[in-house]
Amino acid sequence: MKNLTLLIILSLFVLAFAGCGETATNTAVNVNTVANNTATNSANNAMTTTPATNSPEAPPKSDLKPADVDPNKPIPIAEVKAAYIADKSAWHGKEVSVTGDYFGKGKSTEGGKESGFYVSITDAGKKLMGTCHLDKEASDELSKQPANHVFKGTIVEDKGAIVEQVKLKPCQIVK
What we know:
The chain has about 180 residues and is an alpha/beta fold. The protein is about 35% helix and about 30% strand. Strands 2-3-4-6-5 form a 5-stranded mixed barrel.
């Protein structure tokens, strides 16, 4: 009886030790893999998406050049963003009119100080394309009819932006 009890305890110990070692190792590897994949995916998504959407995509290509743009003829914001990303310095200081959808508003800050207001501009797929910086807060009426607006402003460098976007400052909501 003593031998049987000792044999059972020894068997359980061996099985537990062997199984726990594998499980602990696999669990640690799986947790690290999930954590690394999540961190990598989050970083990738932060560069190409916004809180408005969570499906990363490469920005569309555009042959649009600053010299081709009439500031009084609206162009889809997605097309301007694609051209801007391709050659940012060529677009700085260029006045444009863009079409897009209102997504939200907030207070602008520069150098840690409030400097006016902004509205976020998205394309029809709700992907952040840019911001329109205003002297006065945008009307709440925009949220009631958020689609198909025209924003007119000057493209400026967006220092510190997490997502590449077109920053219009100063800007006005034309329609």
